[in-house]
Amino acid sequence: MVDFDNIKIKDQLGRPEDMGLLVKRKEETIIIEEGPIKISTSTIGHSFILGHSTNGKLGSPYLGVDGQQIVLGEAGRVTIVGFIGNPGQVFKDYFYNTYFEDTSVTTADWGDTYGELDMTVGEIAQSLSISKNELYITKAILNATFSVGDSSDVTIQMTSNGGSNWETVTIGTEYSFTNVGLDLKFKITASDTCTITYINVIYS
Amino acid sequence: MVMLLVGLNRIRDLHSTDLNKGWLGSDGTAVSESQTGLITGIAATKLTVTVTQADRTNTINYTCPSTVSVGSTFREFAVIKDGTVEYNRVVFTSYAHTANDDVIIRQTFYYKNP
Predict the structure, then answer these.
(1) How many other CB atoms are found less than 10 A from the CB of residue A96?
(2) Rounded CA separation B50/A79 (Å)
(3) CB pair distance less than 8 Å for A30 and B108
């Protein structure tokens, strides 16, 4: 018997696969994800604080013992970022907000369109610290998802020491830093029009 | 099939009603899913948070003022529904709290399709 005959016999007997239409269901999942945590300290400056040993005294001629408080308020406060950490040491940015945009350097459109980093030729997208005082960062991998263009349209640099040394990396490839530190950032420079919808940085 | 944005934002809203306080503690033990909350929470630091929302996002904003728990050393933080559940636990670099500064914490949660 040839295979053709076998098939004809199977058709007469009925094939198991004809007994019903099997639908492979895709599991529907919702991800609730813990994002980055940022811890800062903010000095009290010239704030008048009732009961405070220094800033709670009614002085003369001004409110506040240090002599510079002339209004009830928060003048002279200095905010310092002390810690930034990520679950599993994986930073993720979906560009839903501008929390990690370094606005002093970035010329690209970071989150102007919700969920997008839009770049044209020559534009730069530089992050603030994405990990700080969490651990000494010796290695990192940056991955990016593009909705327009691809990885050939950008140059990526990263720094482990807060920007003292920027080192060029390749998307999706683990990079070992020459200059190691406690303050991780990334910088993207576009050589063509592109849109990034997601970035993650895995570091150790 | 996909979870619609309106559905994801509804889940975000339901969760946000549970995120009413932040809490600092002093234990730096590494985090583990099996933990039930802070190892050593400092009662005075259990304070009301504000929640900022965007599509698919809840951002928790917490401040421990300069007048609260002065002299404590902070190592851990949790976002909680007071009296019910502690949703997460974060361990960070040791910080000795003084009367000269506030501690400000921002924590984000995302609600999204795979």
Answers:
(1) 19
(2) 19
(3) no
Subunit contact B110:A31, Cβ cutoff 8 A: yes
The closest alpha carbon to B90, from B81, B77, B79, B80, belongs to B77
User: Measured between alpha carbons, how far is A55 from B99 in angstroms, rounded to an integer?
Assistant: 10
pLDDT-flagged residues of chain A (< 50)? 1-10, 12-14, 61, 69-71
Residues of A in contact with B32 (CB under 8 A): none
Complex ipTM tops 0.85: yes
Contacts of A53 in chain B (CB under 8 A): 99
Radius of gyration for the alpha carbons in chain A, expressed in angstroms and rounded: 28
**Using the 8-state DSSP alphabet, how is residue A38 labeled?**
E
Q: Are strands A175-190 and A167-169 parallel, antiparallel or unpaired?
A: unpaired
How far is residue B13 from each of residues A93, B17, B95, measured CA to CA in Å? Answer: 21, 7, 32
Q: Is the pTM of this model over 0.90?
A: no
pLDDT per residue as tens digits for the range B67-83: 899 999 999 999 999 98
Query: Is B105's CB within 8 Å of A114's CB?
Result: no
B75 burial (CB, 10 Å; 0-12 / 13-18 / 19+) is buried
